[in-house]
Amino acid sequence: MSATYRALASVVMLIGFYVVALLQLAAVVALGVWLFGHTSGVITGKLLLPLVVALGAVGVGMWKAIRTKNEPAPGLILDERAAPQLWATVRELATAVGTRAPDEIRLVPEVNAAVGEQSKLLGLVAGRRTLYLGLPLLQAMRIDQLRSVLAHELGHYSGRHTRLGGVAYRGRVAIGETIERISPRNPIGWVFKGYAMLYLMVDNAASRRQELEADRASVALAGTEAATSALRTLPALDAAWGFYMRRYVEPGWSAGLAPDDLFGGFAHLLQARRDEIDELRENAPEGTPSRWDTHPPIGVRVAAMTSVPPTAAGADDRPAWILLADVAGAGRALQSLVVEHGSRRLLPWPEFVAESVAAGVQRQADGIYRAAGRFTGTAGPGLPTVLELVRAGRLGEFAEQFFGGATREEAAVAFAGPMETLLDNAAVRAGRARWQLSWSGPAQLVGPAGEPWDLAEVAKLAVAPESLDEALARLAALGIDVAGATVVQARASARDADLIGGLANIKIDGREHDVLVLDNGLVLIPDPGKAGEGEKRLTALVGSVPVAELAARHPYLPYEEITSVEVRREVPLKATLTLFDGRTVQMQELMASEFLEKRSRDTLLTVFRRING
């Protein structure tokens, strides 16, 4: 199918959306006329109101689709001075594939490359072209691999694939906005969901063919080895970026910190973990074809690439980042454009990691200290509270809650692990140790002169009454004051919590609430609004602000404060939550209650079973 036919198919499918909407409007009008002639006006109004509301949603979707502009994504615009070699390479490849070079190149933070065109008149008139190039690609790839990526993207231009960008974008906006606004129980919504599936099948099939066409340009200009290895590098690099964000960036980010060189840190990680990333690339999944994918699976694309006649393209194993005049400066400039730091403190990587790991260890210690406070009735618990349990021979009794199924003796021995966390925290709190950055593995605890500190053996001594004094002596010799290690956060918060469910219009102690189910507690939102709009209200609520902020605004009940749950009825739910301080909370689902997603009640029941052990 040529680009012209694909353009026609996309236009026809978008027109079809409007035709379906007009046909349904005509059907509703005809139904209204018939009902008005055979029933009362009140009955006619009640029957037609949901359909009219749904058609109003269709009108909003259409209006938004017509007015929406496919604006360029944010990124750092690279001019000739910032990337002379990159621009030269792009122009060379554009000439080779027989197309006009892009008008601008934007550096973006994604593990991806893409092209866009602000065409006019449904793609009949060419527009301004933008090439988006992910900085992680430049940091990780060889020049010949990057050339294959650039050739692929420019192949979309030569195949006139980008001319349809505006049409496809508006079609998806129109359908998405419409379905989002129509209740899933409305028959008009059923029709549009069916059409949406057909639209996506046609549009995605065209997209997959375009990707295979662009791959041929990639092989022709960069060679088979560069093209296939670049393709296999993408999922490995995507996994590395995800790992980097989760393990290095997010812990400090949630603690109110930010690294001053986000992309420079990723470059260090790539260098330190090169062997791991190479292994990921070699074991990249082949993938399974699906009609809902916009890209063919890697296995299909690699097979198609190897079937293209080989070319004389030479290898170039130089790092791709040399195509920028100053890759480090570009990374910092990009960070300033696309990362909202808010009130977070910007720190160099060594200090960022030291403080973020220390904050994480403190949170773990606080959880143990709060548990010790509940167990002993101690206000302001800390390491001395836990050590007193050891001396009194009650550690096993206390530690049972952390090791399900273990005997008291086994729990006491196993508590050496949590005890090491408490001692690490005490060493940092005393200013005797700090966490040292490592790009090749976890951060290491080091002493005043940077020497490795391992308190595991001391922790083993500290969990037994007969060796506790020896452990305390060793800690004192290291300059660690155990009395200074106390709880910082006296009550658990929803920081770093994930949303796992939601129930609307649930009675809590006789008063209606919306309840957000997090992985570490319940957010109780009193007097939420009338029933019948609960699902929509919950969806809007969780999409507006982070759940941690919602937990700060409304009553929050951490699971660690619930000692047991009596479920008197599962459907509709009726339960009594007993707290450690002796209070009880009554929870009752109403007939008009709604869920954020259909398994929310089951999720909450699973949480209750876990609390009960």
Concise account of the structure shown:
The protein has 613 residues and is α+β, with helices and mostly antiparallel strands. 54% of the residues lie in helices and 15% in strands.
Main attributes?
15% strand; M48 family metallopeptidase; metal-binding; seven-stranded antiparallel beta sheet; cell membrane; zinc; four-stranded mixed beta sheet
Topology overview:
Layout: H1 3-38, H2 41-67, E1 76-78, H3 84-97, E2 104-108, E3 113-120, E4 125-134, H4 135-140, H5 143-158, H6 165-181, H7 187-222, H8 224-254, E5 257-259, H9 262-272, H10 274-282, H11 298-306, H12 327-338, E6 345-347, H13 349-376, H14 383-391, H15 395-399, H16 408-414, H17 416-429, E7 434-436, E8 444-446, H18 456-462, H19 468-477, E9 499-508, E10 511-518, E11 521-526, H20 534-542, H21 547-553, E12 556-558, E13 562-569, E14 574-579, E15 584-595, H22 600-612
Helix pairs in contact: 1-2, 1-6, 1-7, 2-6, 3-5, 5-7, 5-8, 6-7, 7-8, 8-9, 8-10, 8-11, 8-13, 13-17, 17-18, 18-19
